[in-house]
Amino acid sequence: MEEIDVAVRGGLLRVVAWPGSGPLVIAAHGITANALSWAAVARELAGRVRLIAPDLRGRARSASLPGPYGMAAHAADLIAVADHFGATKVGLAGHSMGGFVVTETAARYPDRVASVLLIDGGVPLPVPPGVDVDTALLATIGPAMRRLSMTFPTADDYLAFFRANPALGNSWTPDISEYVLRDYTGTGSSCNIEAIRADARDMLTAPAPCEFPLLGAPRGLQDEPTGMYPAELLAAAGAEMVPDVNHYTILLGAGAAHVAGRIAAL
């Protein structure tokens, strides 16, 4: 694993690169996540592709990048990553909000995208008219959203907050610890709240068309038996369900091998 800075609008975007002899695949993470959410998938890929995962603008080691934020900004950043690595066309994979990032990239830069895989994301969620972005975010990713305004005196306190979520705590691994600690600033989350809001506004109100292979998680953000997406919505989108995973462990745990296999197949 190698950390690389890529020149983008306003500064440097940090990416994590895993070695591989196959084609370049750029992987986009969720709305309050970071590049290390892809570490278990990278291990399972075992070099079949060269996986590149950025800390998206406004998060982790790309937290200081300025606005404007939103899906168009992320799409331009992903193309800058492709340019940095000399790739004319790339495969894209996106988890959760990252699914919206990669569909936007495919819509804006179709000649640069070879394939797209969505992982429990990228499908528009129904939002009642008049609901503001913060309310919609709390309804969708409540604990993750509340975390952004909380303070944590130590890294152990931050880890404990995540372990208290049964979706993660029941499947805890060293990968999850490293993923959590990448977000910790010494007092709380690295996420820029203005970036989160701008991204959510685009994701909830103006998503790009979703016409790509989709992997779905049967369980949700608190490991509840109902997934983040209603089963009927996933069925309508033609999703392939990954067995015995939740919204997080489809990527960070038991689903990593399944996701890796689908990335390699694309």
Automatic annotation (TrEMBL):
Superkingdom, taxonomy of origin: Bacteria
Cleaved signal peptide residues: none
Domain AB hydrolase-1: 23-131
Keyword Methyltransferase set for record: no
UniProt keyword annotation of Hydrolase present: yes
Keywords recorded for this protein, A-Z: Hydrolase
Molecular function via GO: hydrolase activity
Transmembrane segments: none
Name the UniProt record assigns to this protein: Alpha/beta fold hydrolase
Lineage, top ranks: Bacteria, Bacillati, Actinomycetota, Actinomycetes, Micromonosporales
